[in-house]
Structure formats: structure tokens, C-alpha cells
Design a protein that fits this description.
The chain has 3 helices and no strands. The protein has one domain (2-60). By secondary structure, it is mostly helical. Helices cover 85% and strands 0% of the residues.
Length: 61
């Protein structure tokens, strides 16, 4: 859910400043949430996040 919201906020950030703030807040929340997990799980989730971001960017271009 966090990643879905994040993709939406970053997409909208191109159009609205408020969406950029939401994207940054969402990113901060995601990092705070996974910081308590073991390092391997953190790495996996961050990799997933990067892959989803790259996929979303490819779909927009």
C-alpha cells in the first residue's frame, strides 16, 4: 500500500507541489517503517521500491 501511494504521489508531483510534499512524507514513512526490520529484508524492500519506481517511470515516458 505504501508503495502504491508513493508511485501516485510522485506521478502527481509533476503537476502539484502538494503531491511532492506527500511523496516526500510517504518516502520518509516507508524508511521509518522498514528501519526496524532485519538488513536483508530492508534491502529486499528497497530493491522492490526502486524497481517499482523504474517501472512507473518507464510507463510515463
Amino acid at each position: 500500500m505504501i508503495l502504491n501511494q508513493h508511485d501516485f504521489y510522485w506521478f502527481m508531483a509533476d503537476f502539484r507541489e502538494e503531491a511532492k510534499q506527500e511523496a516526500e512524507n510517504n518516502m520518509r514513512f516507508f524508511l521509518e517503517t522498514i528501519s526496524s526490520l532485519d538488513p536483508e529484508t530492508q534491502k529486499t524492500l528497497r530493491t522492490e521500491w526502486i524497481n517499482r519506481y523504474n517501472q512507473a517511470r518507464a510507463n510515463v515516458q
